[in-house]
Write a structure and sequence with these properties.
Pfam families: ThiF. This is THIF-type NAD/FAD binding fold domain-containing protein. This protein has about 500 residues and is an alpha/beta fold. Helix content is about 30%, strand content about 25%.
Length: about 500
């Protein structure tokens, strides 16, 4: 058998470092287009992808499907052929956008997505063709197939004169979409241990197995984050990426799960406390702890490995960064928080908010959740920030609502049972996504724990016309100019304790 060659004439040696991310509505458009026709026939289409090179992976994000015209794809039996007209249109379109070009084709039902010799030759030709046409961009080749109840995807990316095999696929809220590297099925999942017997009894063995191969990134390891972490780890989530830039303080002890007075005395980072705690009660969960902030590049690179992102801070800037990642890098996100309303110790409201940020959801600015004044203040060194009352006055002077999150009623400091309620509820919804067993129907849930029926309301909202969140879905680094802000120079470099 002849040796497989790359477009550069070198032997084909792919590294399993490709990460493919898919989200709605492009995910559904991909499958509807690729699987058009009879189950025993092949189909295909061109597509466009954003990308980011991290320290360990080449992450690609599906941004658009180019629906084929009649006659673009010939054959359709065991093999297909891309016509010259279809290839020419893809080339002309590439000159008008900054994205990577790729071709996706579907195998007949129950046929593994294993590339054939013809696929190898087609990939070699198109990778070289687009490398000459739009140098510096990846070329993406994917094969999709229906295998039982799952959707199997194999593929490879030609970039920087080398092939990257798709080693992992992360599809928004859809654990049935799985990577089959080089067309081979993934390894057999583990047998659930007895400690998760109640979870498997409720959701089934497959739910635990899906949790085992999942990664969740948490932005914030304080009151809400430290409450969510044990829920996820004890349920069996295989890997947690925990991000926070703060250390334990005296006032944290009332709500920071796992903390001790000794942590305060030693100024132990919150991420270290979280990692230590998980090792005690869920030693099988891998924890990557980073003392840093979004969107610092090193932190972003780590977060991009996650299946779901949780926002667990009260920072407006952090909330903007989380939603931006959901839009541009296609990581579904849940943002959670809580507050207490009242005056002089008299409580009038105990509020919990959980917000869904999917790739196609409106951003926090569209939803009126962000104060530009507060974001500006959060970017300053602590000693240069105005007092809260002065910040509110400045916001009002600029025509902003002083507190656009939930209410303008005076707030009392949040206490542990509120942050714990928010964190545990949000973690439960994340488990629903990861297992595929349930999906919250709300977009922006608000609860008042002292109101009748918890005062539960959902606040569906629309994106503002022209907002970048409507035009950069899946664009990854190729829409870097749409990022809400850049990390200030005075932020310390991220550290892995």
């Amino acid at each position: 058998m002849a040796e497989r060659l790359s477009p550069n004439g070198k032997p084909y040696r792919a590294t399993p470092t490709g990460l493919l991310r898919l989200a709605s509505p492009e995910k559904e458009a991909l499958f509807a287009t690729a699987f058009t026709g009879q189950p025993d026939r092949e189909g295909g289409c061109f597509a466009r992808f954003g990308w980011r090179v991290t320290g360990t992976h080449l992450a690609i994000t599906l941004a658009a499907i180019d629906t084929p015209l009649p006659g673009d794809i010939e054959g359709g039996g065991a093999e297909i052929k891309i016509t010259a007209n279809a290839l020419r249109r893809a080339a002309l379109a590439a000159s008008d956008h900054p994205l990577a070009v790729g071709f996706i084709h579907a195998h007949p039902a129950s046929v593994a997505p294993k590339p054939s010799a013809l696929d190898d030759e087609m990939d070699r030709y198109m990778a070289g063709y687009f490398a000459d046409l739009v140098p510096g961009r990846p070329f993406v080749s994917l094969i999709v197939a229906k295998i039982g109840n799952d959707t199997a995807i194999s593929g490879r990316i030609f970039y920087d004169d080398a092939w990257h095999e798709i080693g992992r696929v992360a599809a928004e809220r859809d654990p049935t979409v799985m990577a089959w590297p080089q067309g081979e099925p993934p390894p057999e999942p583990p047998i659930p241990p007895e400690r998760v017997a109640r979870l498997t009894s409720a959701f089934g063995r497959e739910a635990y197995q899906r949790l085992q191969r999942s990664t969740v990134a948490l932005i914030g390891a304080g009151g809400t984050g430290s409450a969510a972490i044990p829920i996820l780890a004890r349920a069996g989530v295989g890997r947690l990426i925990i991000i926070d830039s703060d250390h334990a303080s005296e006032s944290n002890l009332e709500r920071l799960h796992g903390s001790t007075p000794a942590d305060v005395a030693n100024r132990v980072p919150k991420v270290t406390i979280a990692k230590r705690s998980v090792a005690e009660y869920a030693p099988g969960t891998v924890v990557e702890a980073i003392n840093g902030r979004l969107p610092q590049p090193e932190v972003l690179d780590a977060v991009l490995q996650a299946d779901v992102l949780m926002g667990c801070t009260d920072q407006h800037s952090s909330r903007m960064a989380v939603a931006d990642i959901a839009t541009r890098y296609l990581i579904p996100a849940v943002d959670c928080g809580g507050l207490i309303e009242g005056r002089d110790g008299i409580v009038t409201g105990q509020l919990v908010q959980i917000v869904r940020f999917l790739a196609a959801d409106p951003c926090p600015r569209c939803r009126g959740m962000i104060s530009a004044t507060r974001v500006m203040q959060e970017m300053l060194p602590v000693v240069e920030r105005l007092a809260p009352a002065d910040q509110a006055a400045l916001a009002a002077a600029r025509g902003e609502r002083p507190d656009p999150i939930l209410t303008a009623v005076p707030q009392i400091d949040t206490v542990g049972y509120i942050t714990t309620t928010a964190g545990t509820l949000a973690a439960g919804f994340v488990i629903g996504w990861l297992t595929g067993r349930f999906s919250p129907t709300f977009e922006r849930l608000q609860l008042d724990l002292v109101s009748d029926c918890l005062g539960a309301v959902d606040r569906p909202q629309r994106a503002r016309p022209g907002c970048s969140c409507t035009t950069t879905r899946g664009y990854a680094d190729q829409a870097a100019d749409a990022a809400p802000f850049q990390p200030p120079a005075h932020w310390p470099a991220p550290v892995r304790p």
